[in-house]
Design a protein that fits this description.
heterodimer; A: mainly alpha; globular; B: 82 residues; alpha+beta; Alpha-Beta Plaits; three-stranded mixed sheet; 34% helix
Chain lengths: 185, 82
């Protein structure tokens, strides 16, 4: 972190440490199911906060800690859907019909960028998948959430964090995603 | 069936696939693809390479058979004991 940059109390690394404590058994026994559920929920927030931090730093630079509050789960997830559907280089042209104007605009932005790269597409899907799992972990009493499952989700979340802390945030396809998340907010 | 064949080609014949719509589906067509497979055992989890390979395969097949849909894949262990 650059000198003078305020510390982020919701730094995804803090959430990872927290989740890892929940998924690490002590004394050889499995942790209670509730630990796995809380870890699965935290995994989504690792990914969400890593993503919104990337978006907010792109938009607001030094003021990102305030600007990040303007973003929402719905905006981020909607943006991931747009990237997944219209971003791949192989995505079909939505066509020129008036009702397709916005879709074609998104498609064209990504075509100009050479298409959304595979690693960005993986991150988009990981975000949606982690959100689904978070909702199961937090609300669905009928489905089990095992420690192994929580660990898998945490690994997915770490991959999202690595992506948004890499130089990939400067690439055209990632910036197009940032812009879409902002426009949806 | 195509998704199942593709996933089994990657991770073996024991994998199962269920496809459904997401509950919070929006104006965009979105399908949830649940892939059930054995975990590596000994409290280990699938590596990201495996996870992403499955996602890529599901994406490619979905784009082929449902080009207007967005696929989200969730991996479930067949030997989970919670």
């Amino acid at each position: 972190m650059p000198k003078g940059t305020p510390e982020d109390p919701l730094d995804p690394r803090f959430l990872i440490e927290h989740a890892e404590r929940l998924t690490t058994s002590e004394g050889g026994g499995r942790p209670p199911t509730i630990d796995s559920r809380r870890a699965a929920s935290a995994a989504y927030y690792v990914a969400y906060h890593a993503t919104t931090r990337g978006v907010a730093q792109f938009l607001f630079d030094a003021g990102w800690l305030h600007g990040v509050r303007l973003l929402s789960h719905g905006a981020v997830i909607d943006a991931t859907r747009m990237v997944s559907r219209l971003g791949p280089a192989t995505a079909p042209d939505p066509g020129a019909a008036p009702e397709r104007t916005r879709e074609r605009a998104v498609w064209s932005v990504f075509q100009a960028a050479g298409g959304a790269s595979a690693d960005l597409l993986d991150v988009m899907e990981a975000l949606r998948s982690l959100k689904v799992e978070r909702e199961i972990a937090d609300y669905d009493r009928t489905q089990a959430v095992s420690r192994t499952a929580a660990q898998n989700l945490l690994e997915q979340a770490k991959a999202v964090l690595v992506f948004f802390e890499s130089k990939r945030v400067d690439d055209a396809d990632t910036r197009a995603f940032f812009a879409l998340a902002a426009l949806k907010a | 069936m195509k998704i199942l064949e593709s996933v089994r080609g990657l991770v073996g014949g024991d994998a199962e696939v269920d496809v459904g719509r997401l509950d919070d589906s929006t104006d965009q067509e979105e399908v949830l693809v649940q892939v059930t497979l054995a975990d590596p055992g000994e409290d280990r989890t699938w590596d990201q390479e495996t996870t992403n390979a499955i996602r890529t395969a599901v994406r490619e097949v979905t784009a082929e058979i449902l080009p207007s849909a967005v696929a989200t894949t969730r991996l479930v262990s067949s030997n989970e004991d919670a």
